[in-house]
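Reading a protein record of the kind used here takes little practice once its layout is understood. The reader may check this reading against the record printed directly beneath this paragraph.
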Amino acid sequence: MSKSRTILETAATVLLTSAAVAMASVYIHGQVTSGLAARGEGKDVVEVENWREETAVGIRIGPAGARMTVTEFMDFTCPFCAMVVPAVDSLLSRHPGDVALVFQHFPLDRPLSVPSAVAAECADRQGRFAPMYRLLFAKQDSLGSWDWGTFAEEAGIPDLAAFEMCVKQPVDSFPRIEAGRDLGLRRNISGTPTLFVNGRRFGGRDFEEFQEVAKKLGLK
């Protein structure tokens, strides 16, 4: 009886070990595959259909005919989003005629997500989206402690009274906010930042990673 029990226990151990190894292999494969996909290196990563037309939903910084378009789905309260901004700005500075940024609103379920998006939209109505966009991320720790007028003044918005009236409007007065979120959901986006380069999902965050793609596209 003891010998039989030992044999059964040994067999069970072998089976459990084999199952664990198999599960680990599946997990590792999934992690590697998803990592490649996020970086645009997996064979299943394809260009989003009609991505050029969809960029009209967002706010563009850079030329309309850019050879490299970085699309950002962002939330102004997201600290990881703030880390992406300097890298993309460096890319824009390096290739001013060839790179464009398209900002897409993807507000998260946070108290200041929608109000900060509204502030950016109100800045855009006075042609000051770019400085407001950069300021909101640079001064992210001041969201909620500064009033929106202080952000507007520092962003160089010319008509502060009009801006103050603008930020008091309901969110449905700014259709791009909801449109950006709807577009993100259609692309199966669940968090921020989510980036695309020329319609392909991109997992890079550093300037060097963006520059590597730029070189592949023939940008010097």
